[in-house]
Fold each of these.
Amino acid sequence: MPGSSRGALRAALLYLLASVVWLVLADQILSSLFDDSTQVLRWQLINGYVWVAATALLIFLARARLLRCFGLGDQGRIERERLRMAAAVFDSTLEGVLVTNRLGSIVHVNRAFMDITGYREDEVLGHNPSKFKSGRHDADFYRQMFHSLDHQGRWSGEIWNRRKSGEIYPQWQTIRAIANDAGHTSHYVAVFSDISASKHSERERAHLVQHDPLTELPNRLLFHDRAEQALAAAQANKRGCALLLLDLDHFQSINDSLGHSIGDQLIKAVVQRLQGLLEPGVTLARMGGDEFAVLLEDSPQAAHAATVAQAIIDGLKDPFVLEGHTLFISASVGISLFPGDAPGAEQLLRNADSALFKAKGNGRGGYALYTEELTAHAQQRVEMTAELQRALAQDELRVYYQPVHDLASGQLVGVEALVRWLHPERGLIPPGEFIPIAERTGLIADIDAWVMTQSCRQMCQWQAQGHELDFIAVNVSSRLFGHRELYQQVARILADTGLNPARLELEVTESAVMEDPESALEQMHRLRELGLRLSIDDFGTGYSSLLRLKRLPVQKLKIDQGFVAGLPQDEDDAAIVRVIIALGRSMGMQIHAEGIEQPEQAQFLREQGCELGQGYWYGRPMPAGDLSFG
Ligand code: C2E
Ligand code: MG
Ligand code: MG
């Protein structure tokens, strides 16, 4: 029985005993004092009342004392009070406070923590403090910290951490291990202050302003200064300089998938490797993120700069091994030359940036030089837009038709309409040169509508001449495919030309479908309601989800010519083609191969069960009049 109940029982027994003794004694005293029994009875009654009043008073006094006792000993309340006070202190200090449990999960942070780090409470609770690692300290640093916590129960020192914004900063931090009653560590409390402002002397501050804190390399500011000085010296000595702008390809995906800490370690490892590749005295700067600049102060020719760029690209190809991850990266480099490309540092940087853009556009992992040609290229695009408008208005576009054959019988069964531009000066321009521009400027809608109208009309004409084809295929730009107007446009053209919708096939690229599968699906269903057929063009290049493909109301897959080119020798191509055919057929689709240039390719495809084919072997795209119906 607990002590408190035993005490209560004892008190009750005592009370019972006292009451009995009191009643017996009072009875005897009253009987000895009074002879008259009515007198005795009255006094017994009075005695009873007095006893009740006295015990009531006693209970009151006892209870008041008891409450006071309890009030003073209410450990829970005191604890709560103390915690409230501690929380108030935590919240009003300028130091950041972070409490983790024994396992390292954050259980509490204060207001200053949020101010300093930029994180909200709900973004860190339950997380591990390694979330804030800056990447500046090696594994040894953290090992020593934990060793000290394990053995001395505390650690203090300077540590660089990362704010939510990504910025890294120094903090002075004290960590204490908190033990529970049993003497085991139950929590860790870290108290820290942001010393980025106070830490540095003037000189250090100047260094900080001009250097990247992670790699200690010159930053954009200092690089700009150095470039200006170098250009001035080069001009005086009639020397050439080169500026290389280097960008790691897909670095962001490493950062996103493996975290900032690995990202930072990778940046440091890249810098180390670059420093080993470059000759001493060459300025290497970190321009931000994953972008670096190299200034070659004596680089007489483009070939020299290109050699350095290639050496950098090759040098970064070997994998980096960080914390058990093997990372392969590649870099793209843009090169701008002084004085050839630009008269000053500012312009030189801008041009190197354009060249870098060009390098990335060329497929990454390579370098590109900034030349006048690049600017000319841009100008040419602007001019072409105006010219294309004119081309449409003045009927300079042409539709060519490429025959499609049944692979088994060899018969002509359909055609694909392919647009050309008959330029008055430049001759026949292939669609690859103007379709992308038309797509960017919105002219594509007019072009595709025009091609579709011409094609439907042509098909009607062939029918009228007795040439029966199963279908005429028309390409629809991915830019238009998402638009609702496409449905109305197709419906109108079919109505205007009177072509049987079953004879029209629309080719959509795989990427157009995958960009926005839901709206593509809706569009496809509506188009199907018109009675036409749909095919997926350039299949195999767009990383389709097979599950989605199954849901699409598509009647045909067109195997991209890139896979056909290697047939039948290339084993990879052969395997891919086999899979596409098997897959498409299992979904009840017709398979159509493009780019057939040799009879062996046609034979291989036929053997694998591909039904239709088109390519130079059967016939190039040609004007309608040249098509032979045999
Ligand atoms: P696509 O729809 O995949 O068309 C097939 C391309 O392969 C055509 O190029 C055709 O000439 C070419 N080709 C056919 N057989 C062979 C072959 O045996 N060997 C090789 N090397 N190539 C062959 P083209 O006419 O230059 O068209 C290129 C692309 O431009 C087309 O690819 C299509 O995506 C687009 N395009 C063409 N006309 C139009 C159009 O009217 N509207 C839209 N939006 N795009 C069009
Ligand atoms: Mg096509
Ligand atoms: Mg194609």
Note: The pocket of magnesium ion (ligand 3) is lined by residues 537-538, 558, 560, 594 (CB under 6 Å).
Amino acid sequence: MDSRPFSTLLVLSMLWLGIACGPAPAPAPKKSTAPSEASVSETTRLQAMAARFTPVDMVADLSTLPAQERQVVAKLVEAARLTDALFLRQAWAGNESMLMQLVQDESPLGKARLHYFLINKGPWSRLDHNEPFIPGAPEKPAAANFYPAGATKEEVEAWLRTLTEPERQSAMGFFTTLRRPPAGKGNTFQVVPYSLEYQGELARMAELLREAAGLTAQPTLKAFLASRADALLTNDYYASDVAWMELDSSIEPTIGPYEVYEDEWFNAKAAFEAFVAVRDDAETAKLAKLGASLQGIENNLPIEARYRNPKLGGLAPIRVVNEVFAAGDGNHGVQTTAYNLPNDERIVKEKGAKRVMMRNVQQAKFEVALLPISKVVLSPADQRDVSFDAFFTHTVMHEVMHGLGPQQISVGGRATTVRQELKEIYGTIEEAKADVSGLFALQFLVDKGVLDVSLAKTMYKTFLASAFRSIRFGLNEAHGRAVAIQLNYLLDYGAFTMSPDGVFAVNPAKIKEGVNALTRDIMTYQAQGNYERAKAMAARLGVVRPEIQKVLERLKDVPVDIEPRFKIAGELSAAVK
Ligand code: ZN
């Protein structure tokens, strides 16, 4: 077996134990030659880039878990660590050897490089359009390490055209790489299943998952872990994805090859990631309460009665959890706060998809970025009403609202869907709908006495402050643009106001009306499949106006995101060693 994977793991485990990395200044090297001016300024530059991510310890309450289940979490953390090594290799063939070089450089510059490399899982700054920040690093390869070295996209496409449909599906599947065959075997490519390509790590990962399955007393967790272990070795993930949908357990693990964003050629190849989390019982109970109110919300949506759905299905599965550990594709650059899986369309058709929301990650981001932003954009009196509970409850409501309002529609007697009719603008409009109708729904539930009345005081101000956080990430992404639409609409409506010195406020006399009007406009375009109106709205309002740009400039020193530290995971790992 190739010894490389395990040397990467060894280095990574030294780093996890805090032997080599972290923002703490290094002691001066013994036989010191003064670093050059250029090296000092490069060190400062990299430290400033890393400082945009504030280190935060991820806190989760494991005290209610029986000792045996805590051991399960420890095993899952060990299994999850393997996805770090795998993801490094998947992102770029040179990543592991670059890591080896970086850990040997004990100079302040070397440490700054290593720290920022670990945040980005590679030598490109993901916040800065993947600008390389280590000398000798190439541009970030769009093909990652999923396709043969030296091959071009055109070459792969030409080869794909020579295949039969089943062959093509296997070549473009989530869980295979394409490699060059041994020399002299013709000018084609070879399809290599992940179970072979990553054999060493996956064998170890499967072993750890089986051990965890053996320890847990929770049947659905046992079933998922055992079937996921099989999947890693057989390369058939179907049964384990189904078992993941059926998980009903105090421990919520997600581990395996999932998202395809790292493959910028075809978005076809899945990168390894892991989230080990525990269920948040209080939020789960709140969610059940929201689930019971769905039809009531739908029946009162501020749209024409004929556009409402008289018989909603149940609430799509949502889990609220607290993250204990994240790794691989699940931990680089800006941190994931929620995810929808699986990606396998067969399962989505049969069972739907499950949304996992990580409350403690949201809370960390709230404290690191949203609170400081609120101190810039809101008045001192309003800042006091910015609350994490309001922020998180709205985030949950946003997810719930994706399932309400018009979906299956009829245009000129033709049965169709909102998604089909709104084409490329659908994502932006649907995100705006979920946000603004989420505010509508929260107000409705407050008025009905389902949610606490204090929420009405905090949620609009919290939403206003959070709008600036979303827009700061840019308008290229559907949600950022959706937030710009809402902010501009509500400012134009007079529901939000801006003072000449750039302080924003909620107008209590107009906010409910403004939220209802925007909900009505968006949902009506959706119900009518009105592409032109939706597109015009996005073009007019989905922009950063000069006065907003000025505010964004005042936010430049607010951290962008968090750098998670996993103290609990570290303690669990230390305890089993
Ligand atoms: Zn959404």
Note: Residues 67-91 form the longest helix (25 residues).
